[in-house]
Amino acid sequence: MNHQDIENRLRETGVVPVVTIRNATDAPALGAALAAGGLPIAEITFRTDAAAEAIAQLRRYTPEVLVGAGTVLDVPTLQAAQRAGAVFAVAPGLNPEVVDAGRELGLPVIPGVSSPTDIEAALARDITLVKFFPAEAAGGLAFLKAVSAPYAGVSFMPTGGITPANLSDYLAQPFVAACGGSWIATEKAIAEQRFDDIAAAARTARALAAPFRSTHPTVTRAPLETRSA
Ligand SMILES: O=C(O)C(=O)C[C@H](O)[C@H](O)COP(=O)(O)O
Questions:
Q1: Where are the alpha helices (DSSP H) in 40-177?
Q2: So where are the chain's domains?
Q3: Does Transit peptide count among this protein's keywords (predicted)?
C-alpha cells in the first residue's frame, strides 16, 4: 500500500484507534473487537515490548484490520514494524531519517507536525498526509484552519486530546483525513480484557464519523514533481 491507499483507508474509517498493548496475546481479541465495532484499523504504539508481536498477531488472526505502527521514533523501530507486518507507520514528530527510510522500505510513514516549519519539512519530502500532534495542546482546530490556507492539499490526522465530544468538529473539515485517539481501546480496557467495551466504543466512534465519510472523496494527487504550479 502506498501513501494514497493509506489515506483513502483513513478517510473511509475516519477514526484510528491508537493502542498501547502490554500483552500480545490480547491482540486477536482486540482486532476482533475493532472489526466488530466497524473500525478495522489500529495504530499499535511501540511504547511496549509487545508492540511487534501484537502487530504480527493482528495480521495473522484479524487480516481485515489495517495495522499500523505508532511511536516510530527511529529507523530500527521502523524496520521492526515492517518485519512484524505493519502497513503504515506513525510518529509523533518528523524525523527525516525515519521518513526517508520509510520511502526506501516502501512503508508509508505519517510523520507528526505541530508547526508550519514541520509541514514544510514533510512537503519537502513529498509527504502530504501528516499527523497533527498533540492536536488539542498544539492549537486544535484553530491551528488546522489557519495552516490549511497556505498548505492546501495537505491532509491531517489530528491526534492527542481527541474525544467523542470534539471528533465531529475535526472530521467536518475536508483537510482532516481521520482522527487518532486512545479512547477507543485504552490500555486499561485491554488489560482488563473488556473487549465488549472496546467494540462498543469503536461502534460509537464509527457512528460519529459516519456523516462525514461521504464528504471525504477519494483523493488522487499527482506526485509533487508532476504538479503544475
Ligand atoms: O504514541 C504516539 O506516537 C503518539 O503520538 C501519542 C499518541 O498518539 C497519543 O498519546 C494519543 O493521544 P490521546 O488520544 O490523547 O491519548
A1: 51-61, 75-84, 96-105, 116-124, 140-148, 167-171
A2: 3-212
A3: no
pTM: 0.93
Are residues 170 and 179 in contact, defined by beta-carbon separation less than 8 angstroms?
Answer: yes
Residue nearest atom 5 of ligand 1, based on CA coordinates:
92
User: The complex's ipTM?
Assistant: 0.94
Domain 3-212 fold is TIM Barrel (3.20.20)
Residues that are catalytic: 43, 131
- Is 45 touching ligand 1 by the criterion CB < 6 Å? yes
Q: Note the Cα 91 to chain centre separation in Å.
A: 9
Helix H or strand E encompassing 205: helix 195-213
pLDDT tens, position by position, 134-162? 999 999 999 999 999 999 999 999 999 99
Tell how strand 66-70 and strand 41-45 pair up. parallel
